[in-house]
Input
Amino acid sequence: MTILVTGATGSVGRLLVDELVAADLPVRALTNNPKKAALPQSVEVAKGYLGKPETLPAALRGIDTVYLAPLPAYVDDFVTAAQQAGVRRVVVLSGEPAEYEAQGDPAEWHYYKVERAIEQGGFEWTHLRPGQFMNNTLDWATSIKAENVVRAPYPAAVQTPIDLKDIAAVAKVAISNESYTGQKLTMSGPEGLTAPQQVEYIAQALGREVKFEEQSPEEYMAVWTPIVGTETAQWLLDGFRMMAEHPMTPEPTVQRLTGRPAITYREWALANADAFR
Output
């Protein structure tokens, strides 16, 4: 049973490759740049990318199970190629917002667009729905290095950030254990935290003071609109507001599937302290 890992040099995909190799499972890694991939020697490398559908037939040949990174614009092309190749199972890296997207305008679907296409494609499926990544707070590195300050809106917003390693560990279990077929696995880190609490953990890891300053919604939009566009910036801002009004609570999925506690934000901050120095 060869497993195709798409996005194999991406943030989660690369960690998943190592998880599967450690479990002695046969892996084919889809990457657009094999020379830079630095993949384990035992991994079969397929040159390609989900956004280049013409590369998929060769990559999917002889594949039973696919780990699918989310690329909604090309999911229909993937479905067609996977059906033609006889792929049986697809484990989708989706996201916690998928359930909310399903109730809204199809033009705004992102994660749910991928989930729906895979289900309608007739594959056996498992959807992985992590929430916020701990790595997202690496965006704070520039202001911490320059000013020892983090600026963000809605300081009372409670998130449950998850480490990428935990997502990869859950993905490995979902791939290797077919009892999770047909399940939507929402996952999170082990604790609910506000941004000021996360900043304090970073400060402890650095051994110096780092201040938190609240941004107004207008200030946040002014900073992020030129970077990600108005729609995405507003979507992110609305997410902070919702988490202030409806604090998130941790999900037990990581421990339930892996048999070990999920990585805490404090542990993540200590491991990534150099990124903020």
Summary: The first helix runs from residue 13 to 22. The CA atoms of residues 145 and 277 lie 6 Å apart.
